[in-house]
Every structure is written in structure tokens, then in C-alpha cells.
């Protein structure tokens, strides 16, 4: 609570500084704009709007508040501590984000609305519509239930999952709750959108099967078939999220089976998520490319850097961020060039659809430009989409959108989560940890947001002085 109030104070101070700065510089900005227009009249076309100009003002100010907290180590540490306390199970009334109306209201209007789509269908649909009106091709939506395995404590935490397993015969209440929530998510989406699924959200029976390399319960597999069939009917693609490594090998097996069934003729309905920060990813990807090549299905390749550093075994992860960045760019550029390992040189490159989920501006811009170059030159490449998380890296997202051509490329999406406040707490905690581990990026975001506020204030003062 104190960190949130301090953050609000920081925001007000920033606003006053911006106003002061603008009162000195608005005339210069107006003159410079005219000079720039004259000097570039014969140059190549450039974006006529600032990347963040599409953000509604209330979203811009909320983003600035959250970014202020994220970019200040002391405030961020306090927020991480508070979120970790609130996310623990069996909280009393005062610390229950679902039952305490004051706590719920504060979090709802700040962190929750910044990163999550809604607590119910109506709120989620409204958020989806707002994002599309900003220019995004579509959304990636996930239902918040999941399980995280903490390697340091050797315990699994069910997030939004019943603590006790209720099972009668072959019926599991957690699997049914996951099926119902996931199907509700599918119905919120439209053709061209993506469903992101966390398979561990189906509860202990499923996660135990994943961790022991056993076949998940039939009820779960049938639910997954129902979800996949419905997505195919509605034109919604499926991104199977990467999760804690304790469960990941079981998730990979299930996802590959779905790809074999649904991914054909150059179209991937189902994507697996590959985490570039894992040392094992090159070997894993090589095995899956081999399977796609030999069995004739299209590999759905969603690439992320990785989000479970706080809970996964550290030795599984690259030693440095540079190593992770190099791995990410190697996979992304390799897929676009259709050369990864022996594939594309010694062996025919299989059918692949690529999806790049990244907040690294250099990575996504270079990938987009490479795709453009190869397409223009008639060189082989693969279909590619781009995404950033809802509430994060808007400057990256809107910079990509500013490059959209007459064919609608690049296709840019925002990825969000919906569910009750309690169900989404672990997701919010991971976003805070991600910001802690990306100091440079969060600082860049903070500066970009302040610059946009300055730009709007400058425009407002210019109009008022006319």
C-alpha cells in the first residue's frame, strides 16, 4: 500500500516537472516541427504520429504510474514483497484481494487493469475491443489458472485451483473448472485472435502426470480436444504456454500430439512455446523440427525469452542475459531464413509458422525487417506474428504498428490474462519480477511514457495559445 501511494506521489511530481518543462519548450517544439517538415518533404515517408499517441490518456497515466514504480528499485522491491504476501494461500480477510473491498479496489485500478483484461466476460470483451481500436491485429487471451513448481522449496502452488482434489470415479472438479474457464475464453475471442493455454491450470492430477512423464487423465485429454476443435471452428489459434520445467516435458508431449492432429498444409492451429533462456532449447527445437519434417505437420514455433527464472533450477538457464539474447535472435533469424542447425542446409527445412513474443525492440524490429527483405526478394521465409504483454512495452508495440503496410504486416498482438483478482495475482507477481530483471527496458519505457505526456501537454498548450 505504501509503495503504491509513494508511486502516485512520484507520478504527481513527474507531472509537475513535465508541465514546467513544457512551459519553457512548447514554442521551440512548434518551430522544430515546422523545420523538420520542410527538411523531410522529399525524404522517405515517416510516421506522422508518436508511437504512443494511440494510448488513451487514462491508460497513459496509469502506465506512467506503474512504470514509475517499476523503474525505481526501492518501490519495486516493496511492491514485490506486497504481491508475494498477497499471493500466498489461506489469507485472512484483510489480505484477501477478493474479499477486502479496499484492497481489491486499489489493486484493480492500478496493477490489475494495467496487466489484466477483466474479472468477467463483459470486462474482458471491453478490453479486447479497446486494444483492437488501438490498431492491434488481435489479442492473445489466457485464463489465469495455473500451477507453478518452486524448485527452491520443492513445492507446487496451485493458483486459483482447489486445494483438495474432488474426484468421483473419472470426474475431476479441477479439470472441469479448467475446461469451463478455457472454453469461456474461446467464446470471448474472434477469428484471428489467439488462445493461450496453461495446461497446469487443470490441477494436481494433471500436473502429477506431467512431472512423472505419465499420460494425463482421459478427462483432461478430452477437454483439450474439445477446446482445440472449438478453436478451429472459430478461427482462433492456440498458443500452449511454457511453464515450470518440472512440468514442461509432459506439456511438450501433449502439445506435439496436438500439432500432429491439427497443423497441416502450412497452417499451425497449435503452437508450442520455446524458451530461449534454457540451455536445452536448441536440442528440444531440433527434435521437434525433425518430427515435423518426418511426419509432415506444420510446427507452431512461439519464441519467448523465459518467465520462470524465480522458480526454475538456475543451472538450466543460460549464465548471462547476453547468452539468452543471442539464443533468441539465432532462433528467430534462423526460422525466418529457414536455416536452423542442419535444417535448411543438410536437411529440408520443415513447414513452420513463427510467433515472436518479445519486449526487446531490437529483436522484433530486426526480425520484421528481415522478413520484409526476404519477402521482397522472393526468398523463402515463414509466416510471422509479433506480440507484447498487455500493459508492457507499448513503445515497442506501437513502433511495430507504425510500420504496418498495405498488406496488414506486421501483425501485432497484445497478450493478456483474465480471471478474478485472486486467480491473477501470481501472473501479476511474475510481471513485477520480469520488470525487476529488465532494468534497462523498464527505464526506457518510463522515459518513453514521460515523453508522450510531454508531447500531449505541448500540443494542448499550443492549441490554447492560438
Attribute tags:
disordered N terminus; 466 residues; 8-stranded parallel beta barrel; two-stranded antiparallel sheet; alpha/beta; 15 helices; TIM Barrel; single chain
Most strands sheet = 8 strands, parallel, barrel
What is the CATH fold-level name of the domain at 118-440?
A: TIM Barrel
H/E series, N to C? HHHHEHEEEEEHEHHEHEHEHEHEHEHH
Chain-averaged pLDDT: 85
Report, as a whole number of angstroms, the end-to-end distance: 43 Å
The helix/strand class is alpha/beta
* Number of separate helices: 15
Query: Count of DSSP E strands?
Result: 13
- Percentage of β-strand residues: 5-15%
Helix content: 40-55%
Spatial strand sequence of the major β-sheet: 2-7-8-9-10-11-12-13
Cofactor: FAD
Protein name: Proline dehydrogenase
Organism: Aspergillus calidoustus
InterPro entries: FAD-linked_oxidoreductase-like (IPR029041), Proline_DH_dom (IPR002872), Proline_oxidase (IPR015659)
Tell me about this structure.
The chain has 15 helices and 13 strands. 44% of the residues are buried. The protein is 54% helix and 13% strand. Helix 11 runs parallel beside helix 12 (361-376). The strands form three sheets. Strands 2-7-8-9-10-11-12-13 form an eight-stranded parallel beta barrel, surrounded by eight helices. It has a two-stranded antiparallel ribbon with strand order 3-4. It has a two-stranded antiparallel sheet with strand order 5-6. The two termini are 43 Å apart. The protein is globular, with a radius of gyration of 23 Å. It has helices spanning 2-39, 57-71, 73-86, 101-115, 121-133, 173-188, 204-211, 218-234, 245-262, 281-295, 321-337, 361-376, 394-401, 421-436, 439-465; strands at residues 116-118, 138-143, 146-150, 155-159, 167-168, 171-172, 194-197, 237-240, 270-275, 299-304, 352-357, 384-389, 412-418. It is an enzyme of class 1 (oxidoreductase). Converts proline to delta-1-pyrroline-5-carboxylate. It comes from Aspergillus calidoustus.
Amino acid at each position: 500500500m505504501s509503495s503504491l501511494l509513494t508511486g502516485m506521489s512520484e507520478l504527481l511530481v513527474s507531472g509537475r516537472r513535465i508541465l514546467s518543462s513544457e512551459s519553457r519548450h512548447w514554442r521551440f517544439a512548434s518551430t522544430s516541427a515546422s523545420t523538420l517538415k520542410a527538411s523531410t518533404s522529399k525524404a522517405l515517408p515517416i510516421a506522422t504520429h508518436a508511437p504512443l499517441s494511440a494510448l488513451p490518456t487514462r491508460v497513459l497515466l496509469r502506465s506512467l504510474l506503474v512504470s514509475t514504480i517499476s523503474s525505481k528499485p526501492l518501490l519495486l522491491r516493496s511492491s514485490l514483497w506486497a504481491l508475494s504476501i498477497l499471493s500466498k494461500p489461506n489469507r485472512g480477510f484483510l489480505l484477501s484481494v477478493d474479499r477486502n473491498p479496499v484492497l481489491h479496489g486499489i489493486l484493480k485500478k492500478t496493477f490489475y487493469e494495467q496487466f489484466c483484461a477483466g474479472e468477467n466476460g463483459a470486462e474482458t470483451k471491453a478490453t479486447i475491443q479497446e486494444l483492437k481500436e488501438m490498431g492491434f491485429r488481435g489479442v492473445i487471451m489466457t485464463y489465469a489458472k495455473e500451477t507453478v513448481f518452486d524448485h527452491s522449496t520443492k513445492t507446487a502452488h496451485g493458483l486459483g485451483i482447489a486445494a483438495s482434489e474432488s474426484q468421483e470415479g473419472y470426474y475431476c472438479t479441477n479439470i472441469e473448472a479448467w475446461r469451463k474457464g478455457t472454453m469461456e475464453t474461446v467464446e470471448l475471442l474472434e477469428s484471428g485472435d489467439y488462445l493461450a493455454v496453461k495446461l497446469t491450470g487443470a490441477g494436481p492430477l494433471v500436473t502429477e502426470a506431467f512431472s512423472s512423464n505419465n499420460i494425463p487423465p482421459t478427462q483432461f485429454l478430452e477437454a483439450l480436444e474439445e477446446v482445440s476443435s472449438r478453436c478451429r471452428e472459430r478461427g482462433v489459434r492456440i498458443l500452449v504456454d511454457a511453464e515450470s520445467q518440472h512440468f514442461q516435458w509432459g506439456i511438450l508431449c501433449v502439445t506435439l500430439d496436438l500439432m500432429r492432429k491439427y497443423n497441416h498444409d502450412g497452417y499451425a492451429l497449435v503452437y508450442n512455446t520455446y524458451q530461449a533462456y534454457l540451455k536445452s532449447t536448441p536440442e528440444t527445437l531440433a527434435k521437434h523440427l525433425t518430427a515435423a519434417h518426418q511426419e509432415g505437420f506444420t510446427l507452431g514455433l512461439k519464441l519467448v525469452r523465459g518467465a520462470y527464472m524465480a522458480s526454475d533450477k538456475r543451472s538450466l538457464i543460460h549464465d548471462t542475459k547476453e547468452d539468452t539474447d543471442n539464443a533468441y535472435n539465432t532462433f528467430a533469424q534462423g526460422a525466418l531464413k529457414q536455416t536452423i542447425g542442419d535444417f535448411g542446409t543438410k536437411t529440408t527445412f520443415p513447414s513452420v509458422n513463427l510467433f515472436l513474443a518479445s519486449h526487446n525492440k531490437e529483436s522484433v524490429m530486426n526480425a520484421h525487417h528481415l522478413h520484409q527483405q526476404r519477402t521482397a526478394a522472393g526468398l523463402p521465409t515463414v509466416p510471422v506474428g509479433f506480440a507484447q504483454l498487455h500493459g508492457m512495452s507499448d513503445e515497442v508495440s506501437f513502433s511495430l504498428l507504425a510500420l504496418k503496410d498495405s498488406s496488414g504486416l506486421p501483425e501485432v498482438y497484445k497478450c493478456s490474462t483474465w480471471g478474478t483478482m485472486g486467480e491473477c495475482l501470481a501472473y501479476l507477481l511474475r510481471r513485477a519480477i520480469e520488470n525487476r530483471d529488465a532494468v534497462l527496458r523498464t527505464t526506457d519505457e518510463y522515459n518513453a511514457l514521460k515523453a508522450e505526456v510531454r508531447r500531449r501537454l505541448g500540443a494542448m498548450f499550443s492549441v490554447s495559445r492560438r
